[in-house]
Amino acid sequence: MSDSLPKKIGKYDLIRLIGKGGMGEIFLAKDPVCEREVALKRILEKLIRYPTIKKRFLSEAKIAAQLAHPSIIPIYTLHADEDQIYYTMPYVEGDTLKQILKLTRDREKAGDTPHPIGSSIPALIRIFLSVCQAMHYTHSKGFLHRDLKPENIIVGKFGEVMILDWGIALPMGHEEEEESNEVPTSSPHDLTKPGKVVGTVGYMAPERALGQPANEQTDIYSLGVILYQLLTLRLPFIRPSLRDFRKQMKLERWIEPQEVAPHRDIPSQLSHIAKRCLQPDPSKRYESVHEMIEQLENYIEGCPDWIPTTTLKIEHAEDWEFQENVLLSKHMAVSRISNVLEWVMLMISKESYSGNIRIEATLEIEEPCLGVGFLLCIPEPSERKGLEDGYCLWIGTKKNPSCTLFRSNVEVMHIPEIALEPKRTYAIAIEKIENNVRLLIDGNLVLSYVSHIPLVGGHLGMLLRDTDFNLEKIHILFGSQNVMVNCLSIPDAFLTSKDYGKALSEYRRIAHSFKGRAEGREALFRAGITILEQAKNKASEEKKEEFFGRALDEFEKLHGTPGAPLEYLGKSLVYRTEGDLEEEIKCLELA
User: Which of 479, 512, 547 is the last residue of a domain?
Assistant: First the structure.
C-alpha cells in the first residue's frame, strides 16, 4: 500500500491510521449507514496473497464474533474478497495495558507524578479481573486465546477493558496449524508467527515451547505473566528468543514480586496467585480461570489469606486435651430424637486457636457411618459449663441426611438432604471468619451462618458416634486480618477479653453513628449482650436483677425497627439466664 492514506475502504470513510501490526493495519473510519465512528482492521496488502495469513485474519474476526462478553471486542461487519479483507469493530479510545505499564515505569524513573492506574495495584487488579472473567467466558465457549499479553488488552477512557487480537485463537480440541514457510520472517522476534509454536515467547508456557498443544493451563500461564507484570512492572523471566527459552527453561527461577519491586507494596495474596499460575508443571497451576477469579475476588473483598499453621491427628493423644467416650445426658439433637442417652467420642484440642481460622480435612466414610461432627469455638476449660459448650457442625450420611449447626447443643441451623456417601473422598473445609461460620464440601458452599453473638472460644474438636470413616489429619490454617475490618470488631475484642465497660461504650457509639443501618442495630443488640454478661458476674442477686433490667431496656431500643427479631432474641437470653422458661419461650416465638 502507498504511504498516503486511502480515502475509502468499501463503504467506510477513513479518518486516520490508528495502528499497524505484523498482519494488519487499523483505521479510524466513519460508518455512513449507522453514522458512527468505527475501528476498521484490514489485512496488509503485501500479505493478502498468503493463504495462512488470510486464514488467520478471517479466523480472528469469526472467533471474536462468536464471543459476546463486555471485555471482548465485538465484531460489527466482516468483508472478504480477492482484493481486500477487513472487518469493523467499536473504536475504543484509550491505552493498551502495555502502554500504561511503560508510562508507569518511565514516570517512576523520572520521579514524575505517579500514573493514576499503573501506580495503583488495586486499580490494575480490577482491570486484570475483567480480563480473567473474559477468559473464563472464552474457555466456557470452547476457545483458547493463545496470545494473551498487555499489548492485546486496551483500557478505555471510561473504564472499558477489552481483549484484542484473536488472530491465533483456536477452538479447544482442534489441531494446531502446521508450520508454514510461505510467510516473510523479517518481522521482530516477538511477533507471533504461524507455525507449530505460536504465541509470544515472554508469555509462553514451557510446555508450549516444547511443542505441546495449547489448553486452558497455557492461557492461565500467560495470565500469570501479565499479573506478575502488573505487580512488579517487570517480566518474571528474560527470554530473548524461543531458542534461548528452550535452552534455559530449566534454569528459570521464581523471584518473589516483593523482592523485585519492594516499593510497590505488593500483597502476598496476589504473589501467591501469580506463582501458582507460573508453575512449570501445568498440573500445579489453577485447574480453571474460574478458580483463579475466586482468589482474586477474595483479595478484592478483603477476605483472609489462609496460612497453614498446624496439623492435628486423631490418633495422637498429645494433640488433644480431652479424648474420651462420654454419655450425653441432654436432648441429643444430633440424633433428632428426644430424651436419648448416647455414647459418643468427644475430642477437644489442647491448643486454642483465636482469630480467623480454617479447618481442612480429607474425609472418606464407610458403611454404616452415621456422620461426623466438627467442634469449634470451645471455651477455655475454666469457662466451660459443660462438655457441649461451643459449636458443633454435624455432617450426616444417607442414614441420617442433614447438615446441622448446634450452639451448646441447641440447633441454630439445619440444612436437610446433605449426605456423605460411602466409599467417596470429600474435601471438607470449615471457616470461622469474625462472626461467620462457613462449611464447604469439595469447594462448594453448603452452609453459611452469621452469629449475632460474638464467637468466642478457640479450642477445636471432633464429635464421633462411630469409627466407620477415614480421616487422618485435620489441618488448621490461620487467616490474615480482613482488610475490610468490621466496625464491631474492636468492641467484640473488648467483650471477649471481658472489658465490659469499654465494649459497652464502643457498641453504643457505633449504634449512634450507624442509626438506621444493620451495623447500628447489631451494635445495640451486642450492647445488651454486654450488660447481660455484666449481670452474670455480679455477686448479689439485687445487682444481678438490676443489670437484667438494664439489658432488657437495651434490647427494647430495637423495638419497631428492622432489628425487632434481635430484640426478642436478646430478651429470651435474659429470661433464660433468670430461669424464666415461660417468658423465654414467648420471646423466641416472637423472634
Answer: 479
| 85, 100: one domain | no
What does the chain come to in residues?
Answer: 591
Task: Check which CATH number belongs to the domain holding 501 and give it.
Answer: 1.25.40
Instruction: List CB contacts of 113: < 8 A, sequence separation 6 or more.
Output: 107
> Does one domain contain both 156 and 288?
yes
Cα of 92 vs its chain's centroid, Å: 30
Q: Are residues 139 and 282 in the same domain?
A: yes
The β-bridge partners of 72 are: 163
Residue ending a domain, among 301, 333, 358, is: 301
Using the 8-state DSSP alphabet, how is residue 566 labeled?
A: H
| Whether residues 241 and 358 fall in one domain | no
C-alpha distances (whole Å) from 576 to each of 498, 532, 582 are 21, 11, 9
* 3-state secondary structure (DSSP) of residue 216: helix
381 cis-preceded (ω within 30 degrees of 0): no
Domain membership flag for residue 540: yes
Over 20-70, what HEC string results? ECCCEEEEEEEECCCCEEEEEEEECHHHCCCHHHHHHHHHHHHHHHHCCCC
Ordered alpha helix ranges (H), 213-372: 216-232, 242-248, 257-260, 268-277, 289-300
Domain match, 414 and 560 both: no
**Rounded Cα distance, 527 and 530, in Å:** 5
535/531 Cα distance (integer angstroms): 6
Task: Please count the structural domains in the chain.
Answer: 4
> In order along the chain (591 residues), what is the average pLDDT of each group of 10 residues?
74 92 89 95 89 88 94 94 90 95 94 92 96 98 95 94 91 68 48 63 95 95 98 96 92 95 91 96 96 91 82 90 74 50 84 89 89 90 77 88 86 87 92 89 90 82 88 88 70 85 93 89 92 90 92 92 89 90 87 72
Q: Does this model's pTM top 0.85?
A: no
Side-chain-side CA neighbours of residue 322 (13 Å) = 21
CATH value at residue 409:
2.60.120.560
Burial (CB < 10 A; 0-12, 13-18, 19+), residue 410, is exposed
Same domain, 542 and 571: yes
With DSSP H G I counted as helix, E B as strand and the rest as coil, what are the percentages for the chain, rounded to 5? 35, 25, 40
Domain that includes residue 329, residue range = 307-479
- The answer on 289 and 168 residing in a single domain is yes
Assess whether 364 and 427 both reside in one domain.
yes
What is the model's pLDDT at position 331? 44
- Catalytic annotation, pick one of 95, 147, 165, 492: 147
Using DSSP, state whether 108 is helix, strand or coil. helix
How is residue 488 annotated by DSSP?
Answer: T
Domain presence at residue 186: no
Is 147 designated active site?
Answer: yes
Would you call 278 helix, strand, or coil by DSSP? coil
Distance between CA atoms of residues 366 and 277, nearest Å: 37
DSSP state of 423: T
Q: What is the DSSP letter of 236?
A: S
Residue 63 included in any domain: yes
